[in-house]
Amino acid sequence: MVEILKVNDLVTHFKTESGVVKAVDGVSYYINEQEIIGLVGESGCGKSVSQLSVMQLIRPPGKIIGGEIIFHGQDLLKYPANGPEMRAVRGAKIAMIFQEPMTSLNPVLTIRQQLTEMLVLHMKMNEEAARARAIELMGQVGIPAAERRIEGYPHHFSGGMRQRVMIAMALSCNPHILIADEPTTALDATTQAQLLELMKDLVQRLKTSLVIVTHNLGVVARYAQRIYIMYAGRIVESGTTKDIFQRPRHPYTMGLLKCIPRLDEEEGRKLVPIVGLPPNLINMPATCAFLPRCSWKIDKCYKEPWPELTPVNGNHFIRCYADTSEYKN
Amino acid sequence: MNQETNNTILEISELKMYFPVTRGLLRRKIADIKAVDGVSFKMEQGETLGLVGESGCGKTTIGRCVLGLYRPTAGKVIFQGRDIAGLPEKKLRGIRRDIALIFQDPYSSLDPRMSAGNIVGEPLKIHNMINGRKEYLERVEHLFSIVGLDPGMANRFPHEFSGGQRQRIGIARALASDPKLIVCDEPISALDVSIQAQIINLLEELQEGLKGLSYLFIAHDLSVVRHISDRVAVMYLGHIMEICKSRVLYENPLHPYTRALLSAVPIADPFVEETRERIILKGEVPSPINPPEGCPFHPRCFMAIPECSQAVPPLRAITEGHEVACIRV
Predict the structure, then answer these.
(1) What is the ipTM of this complex?
(2) Which of A50, A215, B201, B306 has the most CB within a 10 Å radius?
(3) Which domain range does residue A44 map to?
């Protein structure tokens, strides 16, 4: 397996009037060629910001404070966000699909104008070739009558169809990595399933790596080979999907699995909520951010700073002092 | 009256709700949006009935007809033995005391200029349920405590509360008038995963504590609906496709749409996911302005035969309490 992207100790902060929001505070992960990984967490855990940082799409008051983003052996953070090196990577080598298909397309441009822009810019095609390629792409993502619909505007398309356009656009330059940030959250269940299957098939065919950013544990259980669980700006657990679901070891992951209803659960199952609220990312304590909500805490948790990611076995890591090996599903 | 009718709190019979589509200066009617097109079901006292389906299936419209917010085009809404469909506003007021609503978005459904205490207590005043200030304050304090809020926070304003707490305020307000039936319209979809479980458990506990409270639970999340409901009705384009006990829904779904919808929802377990039936539907939900002839699902159905396009299949009982609208079952 060839590692294609490696993020080391990424730190992205937002300076606000009430203080520094530590949205991403030391995140490390990697993705191999042709791999599907999942980045899971609730709103505000930093999963989206970490991905926007990889694309260097962070705007003031946000700032990437430190870390490395090694893509094909080169640290992308060495390049200025608007420089030619980043522009050659962003959208072309690493592409991104956003959550809101309603707002991520420009409403005053036709689908053709938006789809061909990238092809002309990155693939150096002329207008005519780009139009033909765009129609081909629309066909690949399952948009019927692409020849005619390419001249339409975004409002002519339903939410699911717009997200298909976004997928076509993201894949138009044969990216090495596709980042899908909550790609189907705003859509209906059967449309979600259609689009996730489509994305999975396309990345397999194009040999693209896929990062699925989501709060939905079901989606990663279905598609991801490995998972990173994020909480309060850090990764708290990582490992293969099967390891994490079979033997979750971080109290937060365990809590998540116990608090979501499952379609196949037995009748009368009680959900066990995680007490309290996610922390305010301003003025975070040095101790574990999950401590106030944790049911596994030990004395050490109050005294020591948040631990590093430590292996529990093989490729399975947690950021926790407690001995959670006794946990049963 | 026999025993059965005594326990029925709500009966919807052949309910139709069409919204006119108008054009031009004279607002000439050119078509109808058939949001609900002939729906019937019964609810027992103390029961939770889940209404599930994708956007535009008519589930929210049914909720609004029950609340008297819409005047149905045709059909009956029989609440406690009395048809309340199309009653004049004045006569509805007494009924509104018995049917309460919990909204989806706890951020926009609370008046930002009212204190939490006043939001919760307002129904007590509207329905003249209290004598004097002392009783009012006691009742509000009681409502705060049964939904798990500190009564000491009654003087605070909505923006000082978290999303989960705001939803608790909304629930306390809904409970204020001692309703018999609460219409819950996507009550948890705006909340984070770890907070959702808190609200689901609260709704369940309230029902156990207040004997006879019924919920009409409207949501798009099948796992949540199945978890909280005694019975589930699956809707598609203004029709009920299948209605059954929630346990049966996952174990023995019969309607092809139900099967597709279930298979579209991933389960947070990679081992279960490996072996699950995966039905990917083609196309998108048709417009309710121009619904297909016959069974509304037949253009996308993998089991359709020519007869399916000839008549709308009626709901018929396959086993006791399990009804399906499909001629292929």
Answers:
(1) 0.88
(2) A50
(3) 1-85+228-261+269-322
